[in-house]
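Please check this record.
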Amino acid sequence: MPGYASPLLAATFLAALSCAAFGAELSIDDPYARAVPPGQPNSAVFMSLENQTGTNQALVGAESAVSEIVELHTHVEEDGMMRMRRIEKIEVPAGETVTLKPGGLHVMLIGLKQPLEPDDAVDLTLIFEDGSRMPVQAPVRRIEAQLQQMNH
């Protein structure tokens, strides 16, 4: 079916060029999702965002089919306790790297539709303030128990 191969190849090539161009400006390093025991309704995704441009960037949202809701969160200290709070965006200043990590900034997966076990992967689309979108595949990892004791 030569008529189908050519448009498909062209679309794939254009998508690869688009991702490569965006990836040269903002790179994602070491994305991973937190493994959770069966019945746990929520998890989180962590990564480093490196802005290699001369312009400030901001992560304003994310989407994933593994949960009902996906939100950007941080931890803040209130009355001597660490508490998780939703935030509108994560600033990624020009020429800097911002790390999303346990106990800090993260992408929250609320209302999981499936268990997240080590060696699985979470497909996530990051949404930036300029309207651009970046697909990310985050392997699922187990995180040490002391970090899971934080007040989520």
